[in-house]
Amino acid sequence: MQQNRSRVRQQRILDAALRVFSRKGFRDASVDEIASESGTSKGGVYFHFPSKDVIYLQLLDRTVARLRNKIEAAMAEHDHPIAKADAALLAVLRTFDKHATLARFFMVETLGAGRQFQSRMAETRAEFAGIIRQHLDAAVDQGIIEPLDTEVAAQAWFGALYEVITGWVLVRKPERLEETYAALRPLLMRSVGAEEIPLSALMES
Amino acid sequence: MQQNRSRVRQQRILDAALRVFSRKGFRDASVDEIASESGTSKGGVYFHFPSKDVIYLQLLDRTVARLRNKIEAAMAEHDHPIAKADAALLAVLRTFDKHATLARFFMVETLGAGRQFQSRMAETRAEFAGIIRQHLDAAVDQGIIEPLDTEVAAQAWFGALYEVITGWVLVRKPERLEETYAALRPLLMRSVGAEEIPLSALMES
DNA sequence: CGAAACCAACCGACCAGTCGGTCGGTTTTG
DNA sequence: CAAAACCGACCGACTGGTCGGTTGGTTTCG
User: Fold this and answer.
1) Which nucleotides of C are covered by protein (CB under 7 A)?
2) Which of A32, A51, A64, B134 has the greatest number of C-beta atoms within 10 Å?
3) A149 touches chain B (CB under 8 A)
4) What's the CA gap between A138 and B180, in Å, rounded?
5) pLDDT interval class at A204 (50, 70, 90)
6) Tell me: the pLDDT tens digits for A25-79?
7) Where are the beta strands (DSSP E) in chain B?
8) What domains can you pick out in chain A, each with its CATH number?
9) Residue A132 to residues A154, A157, B56, Cα–Cα distance (Å)
């Protein structure tokens, strides 16, 4: 049970780090603050993690994994590429709606965290863009949309989404992020030439 | 001529700051480095600028103004909203193509520069999104595109562009940013429901 | 000469990471 | 069984280095 306790403490530190990084950003967050926010001391933090960088990186990994899981779970419930895209879009918007802290960390923090993380950040962006691209390719293969440069299209989708979410994080308008869905969906769909299909029952659930 | 000399030195410092900030980011760029890169000393820098923050802010202002001028000059040569959008898109791509340093500063640096600049950054993003929105609204008024949520659309356009440029800055693929134009243009146009018009003579000039 | 421009040396705040030591619980041993 | 030995977890004072900003003196120029 001792190692269980240890694992709990590690999670506590990561949870605290998420809040502190979200508030202050990587550079302005001191390890002392993470320590006190997680109910321990600096020495305690350094017992569990070798460096501040590693805390950040592990937190990023955890966050990315959770978000990707959410997205993939949402998509797994549908077969049609457009329904998958819809589900993924809603899953993202709702997740960030519910966890604004996460949004702040992920959106505002990711790019400017510091030069040492830049390549990792590029990988992360590429990972999400890759998911989008993969499904765009599938849609092209199935003849649902016309062939197009799916790499640029995936980047553009990611960027559009990223910007809308970032804007919401910074300004908090509209009140609920999900409200942008109605405007975002047709925009994205039309951009790749996907004909309109009713969004009907997708709004609830 | 004394104040002229002074102004020249100020510009030199800003030019050097642009290079150093682009390489290192705001936090990792030391005033000493900006000083030596501009052929002066730290004291010299502090004679012309009251703080590192102000250097950054003035540089940001200068950069935004120049970019906005480029965009508006490009648009002024056309009347039709779609031609304006085209011209603006090309102007942006070409400007960053030619000045990768500027792209690095503007793209990678803007978001994560530090909490103290966050509201200013939000303003800057809003400014460019506002330009896009204004012209989307005009296009709607002229009946060229169907009514839509131009605020979200403008954000999405900005975000898409931002992401593509950022990706290029970080990975440098394709070789020339302008090559993304052919993929980006139809994507953006279709997203707002603008019918295809030949891009023909727009590629050169 | 006098003011503007410039410089090198310096100051002090800040903070990641270290280290010697403590504490509560578990295992070993006589 | 109890005392001794041990151990993982934890604490917080301290250090070493960095860097924004200051200052007092020097050069340049009109």
Assistant:
1) 4-10, 14-21, 26
2) A64
3) yes
4) 22
5) very low
6) 888 899 999 999 999 999 999 999 999 999 999 999 999 999 999 999 999 999 9
7) none
8) 1-49 (1.10.10.60), 52-202 (1.10.357.10)
9) 5, 8, 36
String of b and e for A169-204 (b: at least 16 CB within 10 Å)? Answer: bbeeeeeebbebbebbbbbbbbbbbbeeeebeebee
* Residue whose tokens read 């290079």: B19
pLDDT in tens, A116-125: 788 888 899 9
Chain D bases under 7 Å from protein CB?
A: 8-13, 18-24, 29-30
Pair A87, A75: CB distance under 8 Å:
yes
Written as six digits, the tokens of B74 are 């490009």
Q: Residue A160's closest CA among B129, B183, B160?
A: B160
Give per-residue pLDDT as tens, B101-142: 999 888 877 666 667 788 888 899 999 999 999 999 999 999
Chain B hits for A115, Cβ within 8 Å = 24-25, 28
* H helix intervals, chain A: 2-24, 31-37, 42-48, 52-76, 81-98, 100-103, 110-112, 118-141, 150-171, 181-191
Of A113 and B12, the one with more pLDDT: B12
